[in-house]
Design goal:
The chain has about 90 residues and is an all-alpha fold. Helix content is about 45%, strand content about 0%. It is elongated.
Amino acid sequence: GLDPEQVPLGDRKNMAYSATLVAQGSGMGIAIATGDFTQIGTINRLVNNTETIKTDVLKQIDQVSKYLFVCICTMCTATFFTAFFYTD
C-alpha cells in the first residue's frame, strides 16, 4: 500500500475534514492531525513560502510615495519655522 501522505485528497476514504457537514446520522471519529499538520496547515505553509514580486507599478508607487513624503516633511518644517520665527 501507499503511505497515507501519498494518497491524493480526492481518493481518501472515511475521512472528515474541518468544517465537514453531516446531513444525517451520527458517528465517532478521532483527530489524526492538528494545527500545521492538517491540510489547511499545509496550504498555509505553501502560501507563506511564496515569493513576493514587485511589479513596475508597485516600484513607481513606492517612488512617488517617497517623493510625497519628502515634500510634505519639507512643507511642514518650513511652516513650523515660519510660525516660530515670525510670530509675536
